[in-house]
């Protein structure tokens, strides 16, 4: 029997604990990506179907993590599974290592939904997509630095591992944030390549962009910070205008927001045409992928055809050094593209994406009503099929606003939910899929109510009593 103690925020999942101990002997920290870790220990899963995950202790969860948003069709969607198997059987192999037709199909589909992506290259992850986007921007503008916003995440490159989650003590001036590097192992001389900008503050961003315009190749932005804090329209409009005026490329990192805020991503919601866009997650239907696309004249810098490429025997480096290097054994993997194309087809069919967004809004409203009925200051913040639960009534417009939120209560609620069959990584966002049902919403709202009651030692009849948090 799983139990939770609200005093020390722990739970009992014996098989997960056992596997975690075993994993730690061979895998640093017991996890293969640090995002998979949380205290007291991560839960090991063994099965997934539809909106559900099942852990090694045989507990079933409604999954709101969905592999950090990737699984918009839910776990193991039959049509996606069939598309992968069909591709494998029809082609008789897993990967060609040569160009193939699915690459063209996917590039055309992306271009149809994201017209700013005139030409497209595929990668194996969002991180790799960001790498290529930044390299292209530097090659195109011949300027060395990039701007990124405080609180925004763009994967594991040195250039963007800065000021993602800085603490109040070290973050510096809100108008000119101090760059705070988030990893060991970044050479000192690389630590001056990124200017940190304040999100949703156009005036302060403008001042910094003007000050650094001659060295900035690009500004990279999550149009919806962390997938849940939307940029204000006036901020986006201003940023687009400014970057154009100053000769700085605008990179929309839509790895999270692509297909989730709308089929055409946040750029379709804001009506903004970025110079370069990165995609990932949903694009692969749960298989590893990234994509970079943008203006043809920028993307063509990576074209090898006329200028040769680094792999050609006896290649002439006076020519190859003129090409933006981009390669990868698995780029454009046919099984991944088959899964991604089928996922997009599902979303386009019968306006499922609109229903998914309505469903998400319904869950958000129900949760807000529930917490407010207990007089708890809670708000949901998000766009499309992603949102976050934030315990404060202060408006959330930027990373620093999150400092006002009661994260201790949020963590406690999340751990209580894990014992009640609702999976969200503690303190992380909620993503929904087309497999989530109205029954899932009911169960989720009920689990939240039980969590509130357990934490505040209440029962339903005490609902109207004020809860001070
Ligand atoms: C906005 C954004 N960019 C880039 C990445 C990195 O993608 P990946 O984890 O596929 O390398 C992520 C991953 O969460 C992301 O959310």
Distance between the termini: 29 Å
Spatial order of strands in the largest sheet? 6-16-15-14-11-7-10
**In the CATH hierarchy, what is the architecture of one domain at level 2?**
3-Layer(aba) Sandwich
> Would you identify the CATH H-level superfamily of one domain?
Type I PLP-dependent aspartate aminotransferase-like (Major domain)
Mean residue pLDDT: 94
- How much of the sequence is in beta strands? 15-25%
Profile the largest sheet.
7 strands, mixed
**Which residue ranges are poorly predicted, with pLDDT under 50 across at least 5 consecutive positions?**
1-6
CATH topology of one domain: Aspartate Aminotransferase, domain 2
Bound molecules: pyridoxal-5'-phosphate
Specify the number of helices: 13
Structural class, by secondary structure, is alpha/beta
The count of strands amounts to 20
The CATH class of one domain: Alpha Beta
Query: What shape does the CA trace take?
Result: globular
Evaluate the radius of gyration: 23 Å
Query: How much helix, percentage-wise, in residues?
Result: 25-40%
């Amino acid at each position: 029997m799983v139990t939770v103690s609200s005093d020390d925020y722990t739970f009992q999942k014996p098989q997960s604990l056992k596997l975690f101990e075993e994993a730690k002997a061979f895998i640093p920290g017991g996890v293969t990506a640090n995002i998979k870790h949380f205290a007291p220990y991560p839960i090991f899963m063994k099965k997934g179907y539809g909106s559900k995950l099942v852990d090694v202790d045989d507990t079933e969860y409604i999954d709101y993590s969905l592999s950090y948003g990737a699984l918009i069709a839910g776990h193991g969607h039959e049509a996606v599974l069939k598309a992968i198997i069909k591709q494998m059987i029809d082609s008789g192999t897993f990967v060609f290592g040569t160009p193939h037709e699915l690459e063209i199909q996917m590039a055309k589909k992306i271009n149809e939904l994201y017209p700013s992506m005139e030409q497209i290259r595929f990668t194996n992850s969002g991180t790799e997509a960001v790498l290529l986007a930044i390299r292209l921007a530097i090659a195109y503008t011949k300027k060395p630095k990039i701007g990124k916003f405080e609180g925004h995440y763009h994967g594991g490159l040195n250039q963007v591992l800065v000021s993602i989650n800085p603490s109040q003590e070290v973050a510096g001036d809100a108008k000119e944030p101090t760059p705070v590097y988030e990893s060991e192992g970044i050479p000192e001389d690389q630590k001056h390549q990124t200017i940190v900008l304040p999100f949703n503050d156009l005036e302060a961003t403008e001042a910094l962009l003007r000050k650094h315009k001659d060295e900035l190749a690009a500004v990279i932005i999550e149009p919806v910070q962390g997938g849940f804090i939307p940029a204000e329209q006036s901020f986006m409009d201003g940023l687009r205008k400014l970057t154009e005026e100053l000769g700085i490329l605008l990179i929309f990192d839509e790895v999270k927001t692509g297909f989730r805020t709308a089929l055409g991503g946040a750029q379709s919601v804001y009506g903004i045409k970025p110079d370069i866009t990165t995609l990932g997650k949903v694009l692969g239907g749960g298989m590893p992928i990234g994509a970079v696309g943008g203006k043809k004249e920028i993307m063509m810098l990576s074209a090898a055809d006329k200028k040769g490429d680094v792999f050609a025997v006896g290649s002439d480096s006076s020519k190859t050094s003129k090409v933006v290097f981009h390669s990868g054994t698995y780029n454009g993997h046919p099984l991944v593209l088959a899964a991604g194309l089928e996922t997009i087809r599902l979303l386009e069919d019968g306006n499922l994406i609109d229903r998914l967004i309505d469903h998400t809004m319904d869950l958000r409203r129900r949760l807000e009503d529930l917490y407010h009925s207990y007089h708890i200051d809670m708000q949901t913040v998000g766009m499309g099929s992603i949102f976050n639960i934030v315990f404060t009534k202060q408006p959330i417009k930027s990373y620093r606003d999150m400092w006002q939120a009661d994260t201790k209560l949020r963590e406690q609620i999340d751990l209580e939910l894990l014992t009640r069959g609702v999976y969200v990584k503690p303190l992380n966002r909620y993503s929904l899929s087309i497999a989530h049902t109205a029954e899932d919403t009911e169960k989720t709202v009920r689990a939240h109510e039980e969590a509130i009651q357990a934490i505040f030692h209440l029962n339903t009849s005490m609902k109207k009593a004020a809860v001070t948090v």
